[in-house]
Design a protein that fits this description.
260 residues; alpha/beta; 9-stranded mixed beta sheet; 42% helix; 22% strand; globular
Length: 260
């Protein structure tokens, strides 16, 4: 099975070598890998390095991260599409597990768990794979995306049906995308850690700005229940599950919040 992994970059050379190595190491008797780097104009040798490692590199201006991911995805050749940040890595055997689950289950998208890492790659807690009982109103009420997009793989037919990511979103296009996918059909749960994500303080998802809050409100209003009490109930049900299923992640999250 050919799996395409799309990585948007902009001056990401600090972590990009680890990202590329982790993707290339996924090749096995069951998996071929196409790694597409979509670069927005790096000046730090990211493009040259990616080309030297045999990646498919697309260079040019884009209208944000999700526009870049769309460009790479619509140009890819894989049966399944995955999305990985330049500062993220795939854990050993991740794509083998994805391929096996896809072959055994009649689902057009899959999602698993992950691992938080600090800027130097040290573990900071594991993130459980999302529960299959999650619903669109429930996920929208949470206010953040617990179906991690680096652990999510989508059949290219479904990706095209959904029209890819909505590039109007600057930060939460992944949140909107999985809600639309979930509204279309259920996913296959891969009960293992598939990726590692570095929390180095400069992550776009860690910023708190009016744009972030505005996008969150829009998503909650579009996909969530109209009843405030039901929204609150759904939110705390999912929060309770996330904290109980991922205790190390929960602990480190609270420690980091206390320090900040």
């Amino acid at each position: 099975m050919l799996i395409s992994v799309v990585t948007p970059t902009l001056n990401g050379i600090r972590y990009l070598p680890d990202c590329i190595e982790s993707v290339q190491s996924q090749k096995s008797s069951n998996v071929e890998v196409e790694h597409i780097i979509v670069d927005g104009g790096s000046t730090d040798r990211s493009v040259e390095f990616a080309r030297s490692r045999g990646c498919t590199v697309m260079v040019g201006e884009d209208d944000g991260i999700f526009d870049a991911i769309n460009k790479g995805s619509f140009s890819s050749n894989g049966v399944l599409l995955g999305f990985l940040g330049a500062d993220d890595i795939l854990l050993p055997g991740a794509l083998d597990a994805v391929a096996v689950h896809h072959q055994r289950n009649d689902r057009r998208w899959l999602s698993g768990g992950g691992r938080w890492l600090d800027g130097d790659g040290r573990p900071r807690g594991d993130i459980a794979a999302p529960p299959t009982w999650i619903t669109v109103p429930m996920l929208a009420s949470l206010g953040w995306n617990c179906i991690s997009h680096p652990a999510t793989y989508v059949h290219r037919d479904l990706f095209e049906e959904l029209g890819g990511f909505d590039k109007r979103y600057r930060y939460f296009g992944d949140y909107d995308f999985v809600l639309r996918a979930l509204a279309r059909e259920p996913f296959c749960r891969v009960n293992r850690k598939l990726f590692g994500t570095r929390r180095h303080g400069a992550n776009a998802s860690m910023q708190q700005t009016p744009i972030h809050w505005g996008e969150t409100r829009e998503i909650m209003q579009r996909y969530g229940p109209s009843s405030p009490s039901k929204r609150l109930l759904y939110r705390y049900r999912l929060k309770a599950w996330a904290n109980a299923a991922s205790p190390g992640w929960f602990l480190h999250k609270r420690i980091d919040r206390f320090r900040s």
